[in-house]
Amino acid sequence: MEVRGDRGACEPASPMSRQVLSLLLAHANHVVTLESLVEELWGDAPPRLARKTVQTYIYHVRKALREGTQGTDGTARAEGTTAADGAEDREPPRMETESRGYRLRVAKGQLDLWHFEELCAAGQAAQSRGDARATSDAYREALALWRGRPFSGSAAGVQLSAQQARLEDLRMGALERRVEADMALGHHRELLSELKGLAIDHPLSEVIYGQLMTAATRSGQRQVALDAYSRLRAAMLAELGLEPSTGLRSLQQSVLEDAAPPGGRAAAPTGTWAAPASPAELPPGMADCVARQRDVSGIVAAVGPVGAGADGPSAVRVALVTGAVGTGKTATAVQAAHRLRSHYPGGQLFTTLHRPDGTPVPAREALASLPLSSGYAAERLPDTAEDMARLFRSWTSERQMLVVLDDASSGEQVIPLLPSSPGWSVVITSRRRLEGLPGAVTTVPQPILERDLWQAAALSGPRPGEFSQLVESLVASHFLEFRDSREGPAFAVPVLTRLALPGRTRPARRHPPREVATGTRGGSGHGAPGSPVPAGAPQ
Questions:
Q1: Which of 48, 177, 405, 427 lies most in the core, judged by the most C-beta atoms within 10 Å?
Q2: Is 186-267's fold the same as 293-443's?
Q3: CA-to-CA distance for 476 and 28, rounded, in angstroms?
């Protein structure tokens, strides 16, 4: 723990005063009660004049800060690290007396702990974006602030000891994430020495040992990985009476299999696909997906083996399914893909091009997702989108698969994901028409209410076809009971169709049939109030 001003170090000389300052810095800008200070300094055995003694220590802290920062700013360093940048031209830290205790006012940029936490937040944000380089850089800069144990140079009571443990956990978390990012960049051999030292310092850390085993294996040093596992297991049994976790045991088993003698499974060459994987990533098909058979058949004809696309039978075949949210784009695309899957034994891939927060998936991440699904080693993927695109073109030239690209945002996002060789079929869904897709056949599913279902049947009796499917799905096993409603079934059609999710019609099973029927009563007799009935609808 250090405090520096324009005159150099300005922390108080007394160990007890330094301990008081450390606790105030740990709770900077918050009131630390007199009782907390007494507990930190003396535990449950305070002297008779403990409160007065604390006031003396506060005086020494005030004096040190005032003498070290007169006329300038001051920079507080709570972790024994380098000072945070950006502390210039700010009011120096000052002590405030409150009714319950004391508050140390510290401005942004004056406490290195805050700078560390900001850098860690930047690292987490980069990690969520899939940017391994930025993740590594942010955590590396954050860890460079550390020079030793938190609050070293002052005694530690119960409260400071808890703060030390918390900060050490933060540092270890940052270190583990930085190592993880470096491994994603392929720096396995460079990490070995560091990880060996960390394993000695943290003999019971499964995360560190797992990273050491992974780095050693990917560097061709499987015996190092197996020795590391043996050391960790022995330490855990001796100290904790526990076996390593299932994940670590699985990692050890995979290393053993790679190291098997002739006749065992050989390790895959570095930088190649681990096996001729045939991924099957399509979401489950929906047996109750009705009112989409015309669209599904159109997609199958456009991109299936009998369809040639606009550029002839040797071209990559592309179908684009567009429409507003809720019109059943994904359900339609997946249903068509299931119809086609038997023609693509090489595999079927499915990837979503939007994140849950609505932002588009970056180009490199989207490009990487497809080879990764087929077993390509993640650590061998290029860092840039341009290099990843070149690898993707090379990879697709050797395969024939079916791909569903869901929720594309633009043609620019999709074009790099189109394979480079014939034999591939691609089905794309998007909320808008995409420009620049050569030979794409476009399908626009319409909401069920806008289809020709009105003309299909009059509900006076069960009839085959999509309309009967729709109503039977809505009222489930109570179809006949509902059909006998005195008001006549035809008027209920607008409400019934709105109860169904577009393209899949099972959710209405949650509604009791009488509740559904009651919800349709009243109004014009042709639907719920305000529900339009197209011309020609059965009356």
A1: 427
A2: no
A3: 63
CATH architecture of the domain covering 1-170: Orthogonal Bundle (1.10)
Q: Does the structure show a pLDDT above 70 at 463?
A: no
**Residues 480 and 518 sit within 8 Å (Cβ to Cβ):** no
Instruction: Give pTM, 2 decimals.
Output: 0.47
Residue 196: per-residue pLDDT: 94
Q: What distance in Å separates the CA atoms of residue 216 and residue 534, rounded to the nearest whole number?
A: 69
pLDDT score, position 159: 86
Q: For 43-90, where are the alpha helices, taking DSSP H only?
A: 50-69
Query: Does residue 185 contact residue 136 with C-beta atoms inside 8 Å?
Result: yes
What are the extents of the domains in the chain? 1-170, 186-267, 293-443, 450-520
Provide the 3-class DSSP secondary structure of residue 70: coil
Residue 374 confidence (pLDDT): 63
Instruction: Give 278-305 pLDDT, tens digit per residue.
Output: 677 788 765 445 557 788 888 888 887 6
The CATH architecture that domain 186-267 belongs to is Alpha Horseshoe (1.25)
Mean pLDDT of 272-277: 37
CATH architecture of the region 293-443:
3-Layer(aba) Sandwich (3.40)
Dig out the tokens for 121 from the structure. 């937040």
* C-alpha–C-alpha distance, residues 449 and 537, integer Å: 11
DSSP-assigned beta bridge partners for residue 351: 405
* CA distance to 15, 77, 112, 149, 280, per residue, from 80 (Å): 15, 6, 9, 7, 53
Q: Cβ(216)–Cβ(267) under 8 Å? A: no
- Rounded (10°) CA dihedral 350, 356, 357, 358: 40
What the block records as the tokens of 350 is 């499915």
Identify the weakest region by mean pLDDT among 9-23, 153-167, 486-500: 486-500
Contacts with 518 (C-beta within 8 Å, 6 or more apart), sequence order: none
Give Cβ neighbours of residue 334 (< 8 Å, ≥ 6 apart).
282, 283, 285, 286, 350, 404
Task: Report the C-alpha gap between 530 and 404 in whole angstroms.
Answer: 38
